[in-house]
Amino acid sequence: MSKNKEDIKKKIIYRSSYRGTKEMDTLMIKFVKSIINDLDYNQLIILDEFINQDDEFLKLTKNKGEKLNINSKFNFILEKFKNFK
Fold first, then answer.
1. What is the pLDDT of residue 36?
2. Backbone angles phi, psi at 48, to 5 degrees
3. Are the CB atoms for 84 and 31 separated by under 8 Å?
4. 74 secondary structure, DSSP code
5. Whole-angstrom Cα distance, residue 85 to residue 65?
6. Per-residue pLDDT for the chain (85 aa), expressed as one digit of tens each?
7. Do 4 and 40 form a contact (C-beta atoms < 8 A)?
8. What was the pLDDT predicted at 82?
9. Taking Cα atoms as reference points, which of 12, 18, 14, 62 lies closest to residue 39?
10. How many CB atoms are located within 10 Å of the residue 53 CB?
11. Extended strands (E) in the chain
C-alpha cells in the first residue's frame, strides 16, 4: 500500500474520532473503520471531505435520510452512512 494512501487513512481516522461531540465521535469512528479498508485512494479523498462536513449535515443525513442539496460525489458514502447500524 502506498504511503500516500496510508497517510490519508490515518488522517481520516484521526479526524473522525475528534469531531466535537462524543456521540458523533463514536458514530463516525465506527463508520469509518467499517469501510476504510475497502476504499481506493480516490474514494478515501471523498471520505475525507465527507467527514469534514459539519455535524448538523451528518446528523440530518444519518437520522432523517433527508434529501439534501449535496455534491453527488458523496453518493456512495451517503448510502453506506445512511445504512450503517
1. 97
2. -60, -45
3. yes
4. G
5. 13
6. 567 999 999 999 999 998 878 888 999 999 999 999 999 999 999 999 999 988 888 888 777 655 555 667 888 888 888 888 8
7. no
8. 83
9. 12
10. 14
11. none
All 3 cell numbers of residue 61? 443525513
CB 17 within 8 A of CB 47: no
Query: Mapping DSSP to helix (H, G, I), strand (E, B) and coil, where does residue 84 land?
Result: coil
* 51 CB neighbour count, 10 Å cutoff: 22
What's the CA gap between 10 and 8, in Å, rounded?
5
Of the candidates 29, 9, 11, the residue with the CA atom closest to the CA atom of residue 19: 29
The two counts, helices (H) then strands (E), for the chain are 5, 0
Q: How many CB atoms lie within 10 A of CB 57?
A: 12
C-alpha cell recorded at residue 41: 485512494
Residue 52 φ then ψ, to 5°? -90, 5
